[in-house]
Design brief:
Length: about 290
């Protein structure tokens, strides 16, 4: 079920309190018993029961009978907590439609002082194994690994956007909460959808942006025609959660893959050939 602005707008303050309480109690329980929620929220048992049924209708909470009756947040509930925080902070006033749904995220338009993008990181059980690689501190057994993994993925992307701001053309990060990043809206299309008049210049500009990112310790890690946008004049590089630093053990391989993917696209679409050695030298400076 997709999260809609109506679902969030119609959220009663007690429903929000219950979501917050489930999130907190999930640190202690795999499935949060109803009586614990009553205790923690200080609402009546009837109120909690009624409000939980509303949250389940909205697809924000899940119930399980085994190993004992209890409730757990699902992505919609976690996203809602983050978005409610952004609303409270005045970063957004309205949630628009979902404009992108990838394997590991959902992207929504929203309204703040201007148009804003909300990227909801959603690392599910399957992709969690990939995220875990090389990150030893992620616990082996955690009730809800997706909460940690999704929060971590958002943190990674937010860190890249903050550091690269003013040096590389990336969206400006506005705020991050839980698994959600608010960033400026780029007007334009992905390279996969544009027909460029000056593809050679655009490709050269991409290399220069990658060079600037490399200098600051960032290799994109998932570069493709889908993660570069063009606004008619300039390019923007988006989608940074999987970046690695140049001293990562697989940095060279990852950079090669980024460069090959983007140069192959320009070769296929625009018949522009690139010498990989020269390109790599330009980007890394060695
Ligand atoms: N700042 C932005 N401004 C405008 N559109 C954006 C912005 N960020 C993301 N998008 C749109 O949302 C889509 C998905 O975003 P992104 O690439 O960051 O996520 P993703 O998890 O990789 O999703 P996918 O698997 O579809 O690539 C982009 O291809 C782009 O169309
Ligand atoms: Mg992408």
């Amino acid at each position: 079920m997709h999260l809609s602005a109506d679902h969030i707008k119609s959220l009663h303050k007690y429903e929000l309190r219950i979501l917050q309480s489930i999130e907190f109690l999930m640190g202690r329980f795999s499935w949060v018993p109803e009586e614990e929620l009553v205790r923690n929220t200080r609402l009546s048992a009837n109120e909690v029961h009624f409000r939980i049924s509303k949250l389940m209708e909205k697809g924000m909470v899940k119930f399980s009978q085994v190993p004992y009756p209890g409730y757990c947040l699902v992505f919609n509930g976690y996203d809602t907590l983050a978005i409610a925080h952004l609303v409270k902070k005045g970063i957004i006033s309205a949630l628009g439609s979902c404009i992108g749904e990838g394997k590991e995220s959902r992207v929504y338009e929203a309204l703040g002082t201007g148009p804003v993008i909300l990227k909801l990181h959603r690392i599910g059980q399957r992709s969690f194994q990939t995220v875990r690689k090389g990150r030893n501190y992620l616990p082996e057994k955690q009730h809800c690994p997706w909460v940690i993994a999704s929060h971590f993925s958002a943190e990674q992307e937010y860190m890249a956007l903050c550091t690269l701001q003013n040096h590389v053309r990336v969206p400006t990060p506005l705020i991050m909460n839980r698994n959600v990043i608010a960033m400026t809206y780029i007007t334009g299309d992905r390279l996969s959808e544009c027909t460029l008049d000056n593809p050679k210049e655009v490709l050269e500009e991409i290399f220069l942006q990658l060079q600037a990112a490399y200098k600051r310790g960032f290799i994109h890690g998932d570069l493709s025609e889908y993660n570069v946008m063009f606004d008619g004049e300039q390019i923007w590089i988006i989608d940074w959660p999987q970046w690695v630093s140049p001293d990562h053990e697989n940095a060279e391989e990852i950079l090669d893959h980024d460069l090959e993917t983007i140069t192959k696209f320009f070769s296929r679409r625009y018949r522009i050939s690139s010498d990989m050695k020269d390109v790599k030298k330009l980007v890394t400076g060695c």
